[in-house]
Amino acid sequence: MALTVYTTSWCGPCRRLKGQLTREGIDYEVIDIERDPKGAELVMSVNNGNMTVPTVLFEDGTTMTNPSVIDVKARMAAITA
């Protein structure tokens, strides 16, 4: 499953979510919005103009902002159901 996590290098909640995803064995791609202008644009487009991270993009095009790993797993299950 394609999962993309939009993040920054200094974001504590981002580090926590990435660690939880790794522990759960969930593969994901990381996009640093401070280094990737298109990533920053996507984050702002789904967060009312705010650069709120972590923002997670799922393979079906839906997003979640600052989700827990439980929320991510539930959304992934719903997509594949």
Q: Could you explain the architecture of this structure?
A:
- This protein is of the alpha+beta class and about 80 residues long.
- The chain has a single domain, classed as Glutaredoxin, CATH 3.40.30.
- Helices cover about 40% and strands about 20% of the residues.
- One of its GO terms (biological process) is cell redox homeostasis.
- InterPro entries: GlrX_actino, Glutaredoxin, Grx-like_ET, Thioredoxin-like_sf, Thioredoxin_CS.
Q: What's the CATH architecture?
A: 3-Layer(aba) Sandwich
Q: What is the helical fraction, as a range of percent?
A: 40-55%
Strand order of the largest sheet: 2-1-3-4
Number of beta-strand segments: 4
The biggest beta sheet is recorded as:
4 strands, mixed
With helices defined by DSSP (H or I, 4 residues minimum), what is the helix count? 3
| Fraction in beta strands | 15-25%
**What is the residue-averaged pLDDT?**
96
CATH topology: Glutaredoxin
Distance between the termini: 13 Å
List segments where confidence is low: pLDDT < 50 over at least 5 consecutive residues: none
Domain Glutaredoxin: 4-58
Organism: Spongiactinospora rosea
Pfam families: Glutaredoxin
GO biological process, one term: cell redox homeostasis
